[in-house]
Each structure stands twice: as C-alpha cells, then as structure tokens.
Amino acid sequence: MTAPLRVALLGCGTVGGAVLRLLDEQAADLAARIGRPVQVAGVAVRRPDRHPEVPADLLTTDAVGLVTRDDVDLVVEVIGGIEPARSLILAAVEAGKSVVSANKALLAEDGVALHAAAAKAGVDLYYEASVAGAIPLLRPLRESLAGDQIRRVVGIVNGTTNYILSRMAETGAGFSEALAEATELGYAEADPTADVDGFDAAAKAAILASLSFHTAVTAADVHREGISAVSATDVARAAEIGCTVKLLAICERVPGEEGDTVAVRVHPAMIPTSHPLAAVGGAFNAVFVEAEAAGQLMFYGQGAGGEPTASAVLGDLVAVARNRVAGAAGAGPTAYAELPARPIAETPTRYHVSLDVADVPGVLATVATAFAEHGVSIATVRQDGHGDAATLVIVTHSAPDAALSSTIAALREVPAVRGVTSVLRVEGLS
Ligand SMILES: NC(=O)C1=CN([C@@H]2O[C@H](COP(=O)(O)OP(=O)(O)OC[C@H]3O[C@@H](n4cnc5c(N)ncnc54)[C@H](O)[C@@H]3O)[C@@H](O)[C@H]2O)C=CC1
Ligand SMILES: N[C@@H](CC=O)C(=O)O
Ligand code: NA
C-alpha cells in the first residue's frame, strides 16, 4: 500500500469523538476499501485538556494552521455553526483539500458559495451527515435521482424534536424532561433551541429542496415553526382523531402558469396514525421523496447521535478519499435554476382547531360563519360537553394558509369563544 491519506479533524464533540473512534477501530477495513491507509494528522479543539482520549501530539487549537498544512489531504468539519466553520472550510478548499462536513446550518446559509469554491479548486465538498444523520439521502438525491424530476420531499428530519414528541405521546413525559434526555443522548444541537424552534429542520429542508429542485434555497426561504407551542392538549386532541403530532419538513416544486415555484416549510402537524411517518419514533428520521419516473421512495434510519452520524461522515470520507486516489473530483455542484419561493400564505393546508365555547344558542352558526367569511370550508365538527365547558373540535378542508390564520384571528374576537385551545395543521388525511 502507498502513503497514507492524512485527515484533519475539526471538532471533537459528540460526532467528532465518534468519527475518531471509528477511524481507529476500522482502520484496516477503510484502508482496504480506499486502497490507501487513512491517518489522523491532527484534531483541532478548543480545550485540549478536555480531550484525554486523544493522543496529545494530535491535539491543536490552531485549526487554520491544521487545515492548511501540507501533510493534510482531507478535512472533516464537525465543529458546527457558521464561523469559524465557514472560514476553515474555505481555507481548506483553497489549499486543495476535499472537505466532509456535518454542518447543515452552514450549508443551508452558504451552500452555493461553498460549492463554487470547491468546484473552482477542483476538490470535493460532501455533507451527507448534515441531513437525517446516518440515512443515505443526499448522495441519492445528488447522484442516483439526478436523471429524474423530484416533485415533493416530506419527512421527519430532526431527531431531538421527534424524540420529544414521541416521549410526550407515549409516556406523557413533560417537554423539558424529554429535551434533557435528548441532550444527554447526544441528539440535540449545542444550543437546543435550534432543534426546538425548527431552525435545524429548516436548514435541512433548505438543503433537501436545493438538491431536489436544483435551485438555491436557503434557510431564510423556509417557513419555520418549531414545537415549543405544542402542548399536551394538542397531543391529546390528535390522539382523539386517530392522529399523532410530528414536526414535518415539506418541500414542494409547484407548477404554475408563470413558471414553477418552490414551497418549503417546517411546522408541527397532525398526521393519521396509519401514516408511515407516524410510526417513526425516538430520534429516528424518515423522508419520502416523490419523483416523476421513480414514484415514491422512502428513506428511514437514525437521524441523530454520535455513531450514526459518524457513519455518514465516514461514508463521505471513503468517497472523497477514493476520488483523491483516482485523481478525480466527485459529483460537483448542480446547475442552479432560480425558482422563486412561494409564500406560506398561499400554501394550501388543513387546520385542526379546538375551541372552548359557551354552549349558547347560535354559537355553532357564529363559529361556522367565521370560517365561511374567510373562504374556509369545514370538513368535520364535534362538540363535547355543555354550558361554559363546551368544546368544539373542527377540522377544515384545504385552504390557503392566510385564510386559515385570519379565521383563527377572527374567532379570537367572537364573544362566545372563551379560548382557542389548540390549532395545528393536518397533513395526510384523505
Ligand atoms: N449530534 C448529532 O446527532 C448530529 C450533529 N450534526 C452536526 O455535526 C456537527 C457537530 O455536532 P456535535 O458533535 O453534536 O456538536 P458538539 O457540540 O458535541 O461538538 C462540537 C465540538 O466542536 C468544538 N469546537 C467549537 N468551536 C471550535 C473551534 N473553533 N475549533 C475547534 N473545535 C471547536 C466544541 O468545543 C465541541 O467539542 C454540527 O454541525 C451538528 O449540527 C449532524 C448530524 C447529527
Ligand atoms: N440536532 C439534530 C442532530 C442531527 O442532525 C437532530 O436532533 O436531528
Ligand atoms: Na444523511
């Protein structure tokens, strides 16, 4: 075998630590698969004293120096966040090193520029771990489905929130307790509000939409709602109608007379328990892809956690290392179209609304009028209880999101409506 390929590891937390361990445990197999041994050239960390597990001569706090060293061939970035990750990746690429990253926040913000820099330098930029952890998803979109027309991508792409919602539904666990467990298990981001408020899923949705529709979608183009407003009442109401609550990422290419648009949204939604996504529990992720020729495809697996994510990082590492051995670069950036984003206000959706009402004559008609006045058609209504404790549970037909949200605003002004206790979108009901 010839000279080793030398890897610089940036960051040694949940994912970086697992990458380092697997590189060591699987050294012989990786060497056989690549055709050259892989050696760790250095590990950039913030606090070397916190990493007794790493040989001291590998540790450095000088990440820029490490990525530009002549004896480094490949760089793995698992620091996370925008800076210094972006500058480090650009420095590595400009120095001729291929890069593997797990950083969805950065790819969703600056993917076009990073791809352009990698293409200019003739190196690879792979980031399979950034979306849906261990699940092979980005390379299938970039490569296997490059000859098809993808119309829709729908999935659960955040392990932390799926873990929290699963625990709330299955055991009645409280939100904070379930979040603490997800953090302890290594699923959550360094700042877990990125998970809870939907930023992480929105970044992943932007990456999925960009690769699926060959257009530049950033996290800022994604309509984002997290799960912090999802209450035990929402979860219970969902169960009453045979549904479960999931945080969904939905990416659609919408044909229009004046050209296609792209609609990308992340929000909690009720889905029927018979829906395949309803069975996706804990930190697992699942993504449906609908393509014109291929039809429906489903990708399922562990979406978070050190080892599952490290598996995707190592898969990319093998791919870029093989390209390096062959003296080639892999699949480059896609040719970006410029499809406009369709605003959430115009996106058709269905709502489940739960109202506390005074059970007085005419209340049902007043509530129904509020829906009708905003052009929203009601699919089902159920009334529970009597007197001041009466509850109306309404499921609408599909209507533009703006019509539904103005209906809710109008209902809040109706005197007989004591409170709007639950409002969630509904997906997948026939
Ligand atoms: N934990 C997970 O399940 C998954 C994480 N990811 C992504 O992988 C990346 C890493 O995530 P985790 O390992 O979970 O985070 P982490 O917070 O456990 O690890 C990041 C490490 O980078 C270090 N670091 C920060 N700034 C640094 C700098 N300037 N120089 C050197 N080291 C620095 C931190 O001290 C920390 O040890 C993030 O982009 C995250 O979004 C992707 C998929 C799954
Ligand atoms: N925090 C993320 C980690 C993987 O991307 C998640 O919970 O999904
Ligand atoms: Na993945």
Automatic annotation (TrEMBL):
Keyword flag Zinc: no
SUPFAM superfamilies according to UniProt: ACT-like, Glyceraldehyde-3-phosphate dehydrogenase-like, C-terminal domain, NAD(P)-binding Rossmann-fold domains
Record: residues binding NADPH: K104
EC number: 1.1.1.3
Keywords assigned by UniProt, alphabetized: Amino-acid biosynthesis, Methionine biosynthesis, NADP, Oxidoreductase, Sodium, Threonine biosynthesis
Active site as annotated: K204
Leading EC class: oxidoreductase
Named cofactor requirement(s): a metal cation
GO terms of molecular function: homoserine dehydrogenase activity; NADP binding
UniProt cross-references to Gene3D superfamilies, sorted A to Z: 3.30.70.260, Dihydrodipicolinate Reductase, domain 2, NAD(P)-binding Rossmann-like Domain
Entry superkingdom: Bacteria
Coiled coil: none
Catalyzed reactions: L-homoserine + NADP(+) = L-aspartate 4-semialdehyde + NADPH + H(+); L-homoserine + NAD(+) = L-aspartate 4-semialdehyde + NADH + H(+)
Residue sites binding NADP(+) per the record: L10, G11, C12, G13, T14, V15, G16, G17
The keyword DNA-binding is annotated on this UniProt entry: no
Domain named ACT: residues: 352-425
Binding of L-homoserine, residues: E189
Biological or metabolic pathway of the protein: Amino-acid biosynthesis; L-threonine biosynthesis; L-threonine from L-aspartate: step 3/5; Amino-acid biosynthesis; L-methionine biosynthesis via de novo pathway; L-homoserine from L-aspartate: step 3/3
InterPro entries: ACT-like_dom_sf (IPR045865), ACT_dom (IPR002912), Asp/hSer_DH_NAD-bd (IPR005106), HDH (IPR016204), HDH_cat (IPR001342), HDH_CS (IPR019811), NAD(P)-bd_dom_sf (IPR036291)
Family classification: Belongs to the homoserine dehydrogenase family.
UniProt function note: Catalyzes the conversion of L-aspartate-beta-semialdehyde (L-Asa) to L-homoserine (L-Hse), the third step in the biosynthesis of threonine and methionine from aspartate.
PANTHER family registered for this protein in UniProt: HOMOSERINE DEHYDROGENASE
NCBIfam families from the UniProt entry: PRK06349.1 (NF004976)
This protein's name: Homoserine dehydrogenase
Organism lineage string: Bacteria, Bacillati, Actinomycetota, Actinomycetes, Geodermatophilales
